[in-house]
Protein 1
Amino acid sequence: MGRSLTCWAEQPFFPDSLEYLSAAHSLRHGEGLAVDCASRIGRMPAYPLWIAGLQAAFGGGLLPVRVGDALLGTALIALVYLLGRELYGHREAVVAAGLTAAYPFLVVQAVLVLSETLFMAFMVAGALFVGKAWRQPRAAWGAPAGLMFGLATLTRGSYLAVAPLTAIGFAVGRRGERRAWACAASMLGAFAATLAPWVARNWAASDGHLVVTTLRVGPSLYEGLNEDADGGPMMDRINWDEGTAGMSEYERSRHWRDLALRYASEHPGRVLWLAVRKLGRFWNVVPNLGQLRGAAPCVVFGAPYLFVMILAGVGLLVSRRNDVALILLLPVVYYCLVHTVFVGSIRYREALMPLLIVVAGHGLVAAWTHLKSRGNKGTTDPASASSAV
C-alpha cells in the first residue's frame, strides 16, 4: 500500500503538470521561467513559483507539491466560508464551506499538480475583498482585491479581464459614488502593479513585444478554431512545427493566432456551432472524456454538480442583489464566454465552482427555512383552529 501511494505521488497525470514541473525546475536551477528552450513565455509564473518554493523547502519530487496543494484546498474551504459570511451570513457560510469540503472534483483536483487550486484560492480571496469593499467602499479594500485578481491572473492568464470588468461594475453598481470610483481605481492600480513585473519580464524575453499573459494564446486559439476542432482539447493532435521553422516564440504565437482568426472569418457558421458545442462541454453534467463515462464517475462527479447547480439556482432566485451579481456571477459568465472561443472543458468550469457553491449555500438555507416555516405553519394551524372553536 505504501509503495503504491509513493508511486502515485511521484507520477503526474496531465501534460500540463509536466510543463509546470519543467518551469519550476528551470526556476530552481537559475535558468528563469521556461518550459523549455523554445518556450520562455509559455506558462504564467505563479504556479511554477509555488512548485519551486515547495520543492526548495521540502525536497524534489511530487509529494511536497501534492501536500502543498492539498493544504491550499483546505485553505480554500476557509476562504469560501469567509466569502459566504461576508455576502450572506454565518449559516450560509457554514453550508458553503461544507459543500466545498465534500465536493468531489475539488477534493481530487487539489492533488493533480495543476494550477486550478492555487487559482481558486486567489479568485475567492479577491471576491472576498470585493465583498468587503462593497460594504465599505475605500481603497483599503480595493487594493487587496486588485492584488488578488492580479495573482489569480498570474496563475491563469484567462482571468485577465475580470479585474477591469469588476472595477467598472463596482463603480456603476454603487451608482457612481466618489468613494466607489476611488475604490475601483485602487483595485485597478493594484492589479496593474501586480502584473507589471511579469509584463516587463516578457518585454525582455520577447525582444521588445508587449505580452501581458503568455505566448500560448495563439496556439490555444487555434486549438479551438480550426477545421478539425470539435470543441475539446486537441493539443496533442496538431503538428505545432508545421510552417513555423525559424520563427521566434512570439512569431509562432502570432502565426497560430492569425490562422485561427482567418478560419473564424471564413467559417462563421461553424464557429457558432463550435461555440454551442464548447458551451455544452463546459456545463456538461457527465465527464466529457469517454473513459470517464462509466456509471461510477458519472454518479460521483455528476450528482454533486447537479445538486450544487440546483441549489445555486434557488440561491439566485431569492438573492437578486447587485453585489452577488458582480462578485459571484460576473467571473462565471466571463469565463464561460471565454471558453466558447477557446476549448470547452469541465476542468475549466470546476475552477469556478467555489463561487457557485457560495450561492448554493444561500439557496440551501433559504429552501430549508422555507420548508421549516411551512411545516411549522401546518402544525400550528389546527391548534389555532381548535382554540378558536
Protein 2
Amino acid sequence: MTKRVIIVQLFLLLTWVVGCGEKGTDFTAIRQALQERAYSKVEIKLEKLVGKQPQNIEAQSLLAVTYNRQNKTQKLEATVAKLRELGNPAIDKLIDIMKREQNMAEDMAKILTLIGKPAVDVLVPLLGNTTEYVREEAIQILTNIGAPAAERLIDALNSSDALIKSGAARILGNLGDKTAIKPLMAKIGDANSLVKVESAIALHKLGDKSHERIIIDGLSSDIVSVRRSAAVAIRDMVENPAVEPLLKAAKDSDIKVRSAIVQALGKVKDARVVAPLIEAIKTKDNTVQDSAVNALKAIGEPSVMPLIELVKQEQDIATLQKAIMTLGDIGDKRALGTLEKIYAESKQPLVKQEAAIALNKIE
C-alpha cells in the first residue's frame, strides 16, 4: 500500500514538473514570437489559454500586449478590464514585466494607464526607484492617468523619500491641478535640492513664476538630476533667462544638461551666446550639434559671420556640413561668396552637395 502511494505521488510530481516546464516554455515561445512580430499566432494561442485559464495573469498581460501592438482597441480594453478585476496581483505582474523587460515597457505603460486609479497606489512608490527608465515610466504613467492620481500625489509630497517627493512634484506640475499649489509651496524650502527645484518648476507650470531663481540656481547643483531638471525647465519655460548661468552650464559635463542649455541659448538675443554655440557645433555629439544648429538659426543674423569663419577654417566634414546647412537656413546673402568657393573647390561630395543646397536656399 505504501509503495503504491509513493508511486502515485511520484507520478503526480512528475506531471506537475512537466506541466510547469511546458508552461514556462510556452511563455518563452510567446515572448519570442512577440519579438518576431508574429502577433496573429500569439493572439490565437493566448486567447485559447485565457479561455481555459481566465485567472492566468501572465497570459492576460501578454494578450494585452498583443492587442496593443495590433491597435485592437476594443479587445485591449476588454483584456485590461479583466486585469483590473484581478486586482493588485495583476498590477504587480504588469509592473514586474515593465521593470524586467524593457522591450515591453511601452506596452506595460499603456496597459497600466488604462487600468487607471487602481494602479496609482502601486505606481507611486516607483517614483523612488533608482533605475532611471523605471522612474521615468512611472512619472509618465501617473501623468497620463491624470486627475485620479492627484490626491495620492499630493500625499506623496510628504514622503520621507526625496525621489518620491520630487517625482510627485513634477507630475503635479504636469497635471495643472491648482489644488497642488499650496502643498508645493511648502516644498520650496525643502532641504533636498531636487525636491526644491522640481517644486519650483511645478509652481511655474501652475502659473507662479516667482521662483525662477531657484530653477536657475539648480544649474550649479552638484547633483546631475537637479541640473538636468533645471536645464530642461529653462529651455521650455523661462522666457528671458540670464546669460551668465547659461554660458557656464553650456560647458556642463553631462550631455543632457549641455543639450538643453544649448537649445535655451537660442532664445537669448545676445551676441555673447554665439561663440559657445559655434563651439557646440564642433562637438562630436549629434544631439548637442543639432541643438546648437537650431539655436543659431533662431538667433539669425548675429550668427552669420562666425559661421562663415567656421566654414572657412573647419576640416571636419560633419561639422562643416552642419555649418553650411545652418548658413543656408538663415539665408543671409553675406554667405554667398564663401559657399560658392566651397562648392567650386571642395573635393568632398557631401560638402559640395550641402553647399549647393545652401546656395539654392539663399538665392
